[in-house]
Every structure is written in structure tokens, then in C-alpha cells.
# Entry
Amino acid sequence: MKTIHPYQTIGIIGGGQLARMMCIAAKAMGYYTAVLDPTPNCPAAQVSDREITAAYDDLAAIKRLAEITDVVTYEFENIDVNALEWLSDNAYLPQGSETLRISRHRYLEKTAISKMGIPVAEFLLIKDAGDFDKQVADKRVTFPSIIKTTTLGYDGKGQIVLRGEEDLIRARALAETSECIIEKFVDFEREVSVIVARSTTGEVKTFPVAENIHINNILHLSIVPARISDKVAKEAVEVAKTIASGLGAVGVMGVEMFATARGIVVNEIAPRPHNSGHFSIDACITSQFEQHVRAVCGLPLGATDLHTPVVMVNILGNHMNKEQLHDLSRFSPLLPYGKIHLYGKAAAVDGRKMGHFNVLDDVENALERIKKTGIW
Ligand code: ADP
Ligand code: MG
# Structure
């Protein structure tokens, strides 16, 4: 492990909003950046020194990225397997490949976390449709539960809730297309998350717990401080630290959890900055993006104290004036106390994450302001 200093160059695989906000943090600290993404002028390319326009599995382009940079990181977990192998052997990828291998596969992920003594929803591997039939015949599939593809799911894609026998046909169809897991439905009081950073030096720091509200499985609001007891908040923070240390992860990681009457149950992890950590940009001493840069570059981690309560609200394509993306009139109740972050995407599509507001006000006031816009 080495220290990467300002004036050196950080390479990022993926050029969406997470990479964009990483670049902005890195640039503020005096680093140069290069991003690799198939879309020309993608959100990160607009703020990056260098842009490589190529497919994620274009090995020549991955090699070029490594050549022109001093450290390589990524904004998403589904990095092409060959690219990852090449990078692990030939480039400086301080995050390694092991955390990715585990977190991109729901069965490996839940197995690893439960081995650390941390509660997860009860789960069952479904290898294929034949296996599904066998598990149903053996009465191991119970209700309510959720079937999820083991890989490539996000924002609720590749999942079906099983409320009763009537949902088995659709579930079987999913198992026909992909390896899956079936999880018992967790009866949670709140959904929360903790962003945890672990640096190449082994230093670990967490951000304040966020309470997350999803609509149609897409994150809609993060409320900080989370409306949970201090005891549960402490448990959530400890769980996140245990996972980051247990995996030997490097960089920032989002740990999604359920707060239940019996304590914290972990849902899933994402080994990268996470949507539920965007509040930190305006509400914490150090943002999750700066923390990620510090962690992969081997700098001391920054303080994560919250200096104001905050509600982060996502702006989706369906919240925008699709013909006139610059028209923010709908958001006028948020503008005085809300810090706006737009990602520079060329077109608004329903459900696409276009930006977010961090509303810096007491939680109840912030929620009232957000309600006035009609987006919640
Ligand atoms: P994704 O990768 O799409 O974010 P998640 O596993 O986080 O997938 O599931 C999306 C949402 O579905 C969660 O945020 C939660 O609201 C709900 N959910 C997922 N698994 C469970 C479960 N076992 N019990 C209750 N709710 C769940
Ligand atoms: Mg999730």
C-alpha cells in the first residue's frame, strides 16, 4: 500500500454521478482525475481532467486508464471479471478484488456477514428452476419472503415479493433466468444505513446513521439523524465497522440495514460511496466522497461529525421538467435551505437519478419543505 498525493491522478471505472462527486472531491484536494465510461460527456467526464470513452470490458481501455493514473478505483461493483483480474495483477487497485467478489453476489455476501456473527434475513440459495421446485416441495419456501437474483440487481430490479402460493409461478420464472436467493421478509421498524470508510492504513471511520425511505424500491429520502434510539444507532455503527474490518475492505462502503424490534439486521453492502451517504456533502465535516479519496490514497481519514440535521431527497427524472431540464421552479420551496446537486445527465427518464437536494433544516421542517414540492 502506498500514499497517493495531490498532483497525482486517480482513475475511476464508471462515469455516473458517484464518479462525478468523487472527481469533484478529488479536484478540490488537488488531485487529477481520469474516468472510463462508454458514454461521451458522461456526468463524471464533465468534471474530470481526462475521459476514456470505452466499454467497461474493453481491456485495452482499462490498461490505458491504469497507464495514465496512479491509483484505480470504481463507482460500481459489477466490474468485468477479466478487467478486475488484470487490474489486480498489473495496476494499483488498493480496494483489491475480494470485497467485490463477495458483495456482488447476494449469497456470498449474506454468508460472509452472518459468519461475522451479524444477523441477516434467513436465506436460501436457489440454483435454478429445478432447485426451486425441490425447495418448494420440501416446504423450505415460506411467506412472506423475497426472491432476488444473486447478481446484478439494483433499485429493486430482479426481485419479487412472495406473499403466498399465487406468487410462486412468477418466482419460478425468475429462477429460470438466473441463480437466486430467497430471503425471509424482515419485519423492520425503519431502514437505516451506515457509510463506513476503511483506509489502506486500516483506519476505520463511520458517518452518522441515515434513516432511509424507499419508494418503489428506489431510495427517496435519507433523514439524518435517523429517528432511532441511541442504542440502535450505536449497534448500527458497530456492525458497519465489523463488516469493513472483517472484509479488510478499502474505501467507502454503504451498509444497508433494517432496524427491528430485536436490533439490527443487515440487508446488503455496497463497496463504494452510496446514495444514502449524499447528505454528508453538505452536512458533515468530511463528505463520503472526500473520505473515499482519502481512504484509497492512504491519507488520514477526515472527521465525520454532523454539523446540521439534514434530509436528502433524490430528484428523479419524473420529478423534473423533462423538456426544460434547467427549469427548477418546482423545487422553489427547497432552494433557500436546500443545496442542489444535479448530475449533468442529458435526458430525464422516469426513475433515473438526476440529482439530489440536501435540505439543511430540522428534520420536520425539511420534510414539510419537501412535501410542498409534491415530490414526496
Ligand atoms: P437492491 O440491490 O435493489 O437495493 P435490496 O436487497 O436492498 O436490493 O432490496 C431493495 C429493498 O427491498 C430494500 O431496501 C427493502 O426496502 C426491501 N427488502 C429487501 N429485502 C428485504 C427483506 N428480506 N425484508 C424486508 N424488506 C426487504
Ligand atoms: Mg439496496
